[in-house]
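Run folding on both entries below.
>entry_1
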Amino acid sequence: MLRWLMLAAFALGTFATPVFAQPGPTAASKPLAGAELKEYIRANYTKYEYQIPMRDGVKLFTAVYVPKDDAQTYPMMLTRTPYSVAPYGADKYPDALRPSAQFVKSGYIFVYQDVRGRWMSEGEFVNVRPHNPAKKGKEIDESSDTYDTVEWLTKNVKGHNGKVGITGISYPGFYTVCGMIDAHPAVKAVSPQAPVSEWFIGDDFHHNGCLFLPHCFNFMYGFGKNRPEPTKKGARDRFEHDTPDGYKFFLEMGPIKNADAKYYKGEIAFWKEVMEHGTYDDFWKARNIRQHVKNIKPAVLTVGGWFDAENLFGALEIYKHAEANTPPQFNHLVMGPWVHGGWSRGEGDHLGDVSFNAKTSDFYRETIEFPFFEYHLKGVGESKHPKAWVFETGTNVWRKHDTWPPKTAKATSFYPHPGGVLWGNAHLGKDAVDSATPPPAFDEFVSDPAKPVPFINKTDIGMVKEYMTADQRFASARPDVLVYQGEVLKSDLTIAGPIEVELYVSTTGTDADWVVKVIDVYPDDLADPDPNPTGVKMGGYQQLIRGEPFRGKFRNSFSKPEPFKPGEVAKVKFTMPDVFHTLRPGHRLMVQVQSTWFPLVDRNPQTFCDIYKADASDFKKQTHKVYRDAEHPSRITVGVIK
């Protein structure tokens, strides 16, 4: 979740439809940008600022940009944000209006609101404020604040056509989700983009109970500071690490409890709340907005990025819950090869060393997002959106599906074998389970919390966005990483949907994290890019397709952690977020298993305890085993499209 973000009537066939043409904008239709866009906004829009009263009397600061041309009426586009609606002042205009320049030229009433308790709005701010489905009287939540805002806007802003859209990326995506729950009748179309949905299971700060350390620590230092009263100058400080090396900084910080003792000094309230709630208790359960996504009335366009390091989980989960619980007539998913918010800016043609050979962000803004809102808010064009617009990496092509995951995806398992071999039960035509070796058959490694496996082979202080596609050769050379590699593929292997992980493991300790990485290994003779400014060698490149950690003590319940019994085999089962990737002929499928992923994931002491209160003496070197025999068939299972 990045602090700078603010922000079907179509008949489908039974097969996926590829979309090959991805033209860029023509000279005549090229959107305004830069100084030209800013000048256009000032010349064609009038800005108003309001303090809009909520049902409990609290007033929320709202900036409204209305087209000067009053010969027609316009829909309203609302974004609610905790990141400020600056610039403040009726005579001060922004450089752009979201979602994109196409909307500015077409004509919309743009509305931006500081959410309750942030920046210039009154009231108390609560992080991912719990939804209250049984509100009475003056009781509020983010859904009611959205409803009350729309009610006021439709009664007090002139020149609108009675229709409202809501959009937002990341944290504003969370507020978009809230706005589509028990939505105001005027809200006709919403687009939650990379929405925050769950901060313990899969979004932002925790994945399967593991703390994403640099992301949470760095973000909360500025965002989490107290704001005692409305202000135009909020605390947006950046933490000074005094080193560019995040691995060094967080390792030297020691146990996680030292973060507050050494640096925060009790000033970041939400950090203290995170440290007090180390299990999936009522605090986190109340902040699971997914459970309330049902009976949605507006048209929905949920957007996410396959390589979004922050809210990939949220985009997929919000779509799935809307689809499962009395879905709206129009419920669409868009997944492209993007980092967090990458669809809203730039070209989206590459990430790190990996090229997608297409301007995917331009395509999305022009072909998907803009027509969606034009149709539902203005009645312009036709509803030609499929259920799912999804970009298939590897082949690098947009595809349309009438379901997600695709109905044609067949569950296929891949199993580790002796010598680092990976066999599949279908595609590779081998006997999957190692029945020739009597149990217990296993591979083992020593995991040392004092020397954790880095999550990326570069120096940085934060959660480097490129890690989602980064080369894993540096990790496969380490003795504390198990590596299993399949045969050279003779035809395309397309995997689509979630990845199911089932590991049979043991440890000499009483707790352990289990990190699984699914990797596309390129042919050794693959040519380097030309030009090649970074000097990368693509021959043998091990591209991460998906990686995910799981905290072992939560293997049976996120609410009631359990220790491992030293030396006793236990099953660890979890789901990794969806992928849509094709491994081309000549490539190989690889799976890596490890127990540290630092500093992306905080260190597990490998002794059963409350990790947020652990002492340095609790951190122990342990030996972990992954079993691979008929009685203990460790495996990953993916959907394969043939």
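>entry_2
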Amino acid sequence: MSTDTKNNTALMEKIVSLCKRRGFIFQSSEIYGGCGGVWDYGPLGAELKRNLRTAWWNAMTREREDVLGLDASILMNPAIWKASGHVDTFADLMRECSLTNKRVRADHVDPQEGVIMNYTGAEAPTGWKLDRVISVLMKKGEHIESFRKRVRTLIASNAGEAAGKIEEIILLGEAKGDTIEGSVDFHPETGGALGPARPFNLMLKTYLGPTATEDDVTYLRPETAQAIFAQFKNVFDSSRMKVPFGVCQIGKAFRNEVTPKNFTFRSREFEQMELEFFIKPDEAVEIISGEVAQWSETADLSEPQPNWGWDMWHRYWVAQRTSFYEGIGLGGVLEYYWQTPDDLAHYARACVDILCDFPFGTEELEGIAARGAFDLTAHQTASGKTQEVFDEDLKNAAAKLTDEQKEALIQKRLAAEQAKVKGEPMPEADVRAWFDRLFKGNYVPHVIEPSAGLDRMALAIIANAFNETEKVDEKGKKEVITVLRLHPRVAPIKVGVFPLLKNKPELVAKAREVYALLKKHMNVFYDETASIGRRYARQDEVGTPFGITIDFDTLGEKGPELQDTVTLRHRDGGEQERIKISDLLPKLLAAVS
């Protein structure tokens, strides 16, 4: 293991420890041994997630005129998941350990090296037998006796009580095999040989109704997006919005991940924040505006324009989401991966992954996809309910086109269909039928989809805010100081309020007065125990950006000019300033909003 890997692993362990110790994140059902891939958020974690939800919701809805909100149910008619393709294709390729039956995603097996050890089986004095050949990787540097003990332990864990005592299991027909390097054919934890890759559906199944038969099967939603597509027409008809416009929601989703890993990064229960932004097909834009704007490095993405097609809208939302992350303190750790044609789903025109630095590597934080009309069209076909919208401007503009201009548009689309790299081209008859509807003002909207994970976002915020410094006191004793440099907008606690001394009633009374003043507007923590320096350190460790100390100057003991002023301490720089109590609220609100 490289030094960097060791350091990053140690850093991740410190972050996990901090999250538990200070009440950010706990293992679900911990007192019963836990529940794999599921996490609970403690008092500070709940506040952090709430702040992130609010920041995302405000950026998507309150600060815009073209996005509406939705709060859809977790349980939906299973026909939705059939139409979307999840029932048939929402699967990961999985491989199974031949020794323990543990499963691992085929793409999550790191290359390994070592010596293959083969056995014809195993037996125990209890009469138990294992009558099949097993192959296990003895890792480089592993002692043979330690290896044999490990194999016995793994066999016993799978066999149960029937195998008896671990040390009495006899490994049969041991034979040394090949020395290998860079192999992905052995389980990364057990070392057992992996079977062939097979698809494993990620949806969690449940039942609606009292009989629990196959007729009652439904699923816990694996994503929030399909509910938006299924409710598109209801939102469109009830809100009187015009395309382009978006519908967004925040909600729980569930995936039966084969190998949940990296703390909360990949979980079985998680929270998504998704926007489906519905736009006109490029052909409709061209008919109305006379052209479709082309992307260039100098393109102005600050304000949407009527002649924008899917490419400009896609890049616009990449820019918008980047701006959002910059506003919560992640601007300096982002990277982008523009998916290649080989990466893309057959229906997608483009997709960019916004990546973020984590201690375990650079991983996806959010995906922004141009999904075309695939989803709405799939639900229109499966349900028999139209998902088309009528556009009066489009109808009027199309009426002014000559037959030659219309035919030119059709020929342009036919050429694009024939040039498709993925998916079957649309037959000419279907293309002409589609244009016939379009010229009358009817179309199924296309969609741009920014999709982010709230749990990943929270982990990214914590991991990138984590900071350690070494401090030496006046006696020369070294101490490691942990500071979470959280952006004030998302910090769970915005300000700590501290009376200088807890045994001075007048100081405590004034501190309580300041606490009550601020508490109505933000999350405030009151603390009167230990030294003032220790109280500052406790709040630094949980990311509180500001500390307020009420001292004897506040009471006017050093003159009326300092009366009703407090010391405001800034977490990151450590600087302190004297400020009037009457000026506290507007100053703090400006800093944390």
